[in-house]
Write a structure and sequence with these properties.
Helices cover 27% and strands 16% of the residues. The protein is built from eight helices and nine strands. The strands form four sheets. Strands 8-1-9 form a three-stranded mixed β-sheet. The chain has a two-stranded antiparallel ribbon with strand order 2-3. Strands 4-5 form a two-stranded antiparallel ribbon.
Length: 251
């Protein structure tokens, strides 16, 4: 069933409106901020890979998860100013409590980079997209801020920017009136490939201890695939069939 806006606005006019809104949104992204590499466009993009994370909750303390959040904030510059309406949450701390024993666990929650991302399905402009290597991103130049993707995401992984931003970082294009979320530190992935270490993982991994492991889920010989084969991993909301690229152990 069509909503009221679709009923009142003819298709050609609707397409024109979306293009105009996308163009207006593009002006809000800071000059010199370039788009992430999309789909097949980047020659260095590994089309055979599917990048993901394996998070060992047994190896993470509350302080570790706080360190993940802080590292992400520093890497991408998304800490909200005091009094800001923007509740940026590229990554957030989640506390799980066993109601019977009182035992608590803490885990980082971010965009899970689903194989079948609902945020992409509902986006009217194509701003939400999944790269060939499985990383789910937002093209800030054509995002119109409708927030359909925020409603569609079962993990509450996306945030909306209400205010004009200052001092943006080149690695993290942002803009007022657009949606944002974890990028899996895509700038590091594009630079280092399988050797990349996202900021959250860098903050908590020590020597052989890898509480957060990055790697290629499509490569059976990768460390992340071998650990999943040996110890298994949990897909959050597996009942939805989204096949997230971020898996958890110890849940």
């Amino acid at each position: 069933m069509k909503n009221a806006a679709e009923t009142e606005l003819p298709q050609p006019a609707r397409r024109g409106f979306l293009k105009g809104a996308a163009a207006a949104a593009a002006t809000l992204v800071a000059p010199g901020i370039f788009l992430y590499r999309t789909g097949q466009a980047a020659t260095s993009l590994d089309n055979e890979a599917r990048w993901g994370l394996l998070i060992d909750t047994n190896a993470l303390s509350e302080a570790d998860v706080d360190a993940c959040v802080s590292a992400c904030q520093r890497e991408h510059g998304w800490r909200a100013e005091p009094g800001s309406k923007t509740d940026a949450q590229w990554i957030r701390k989640v506390k799980l409590t066993d109601q019977e024993t009182g035992h608590q666990k803490f885990l980082p929650m971010m965009c899970l980079h689903c194989e079948s991302p609902p945020c992409v399905d509902v986006c009217p402009t194509g701003a939400s997209f999944k790269r060939a290597d499985g990383i789910v991103l937002v093209n800030k130049h054509i995002c119109i801020g409708c927030r359909y993707c925020m409603m569609a995401c079962p993990y509450k992984a996306r945030s909306f920017i209400h205010e004009t931003l200052k001092d943006q970082l080149p690695v993290a294009p942002r803009g007022k009136g657009t949606v944002e979320s974890c990028t899996l530190c895509v700038h590091r992935v594009d630079r280092d490939g399988a050797n990349a270490v996202p900021a959250c993982a860098e903050a908590v991994n020590r020597g052989e201890r890898k509480a957060i492991l990055f790697g290629d889920l499509n490569d059976p010989q990768s460390e992340i695939s071998r650990r999943l084969q040996e110890l298994g991993g949990t897909r959050l909301r597996a009942d939805m069939g989204l096949n997230p690229g971020v898996r958890y152990q110890g849940l």
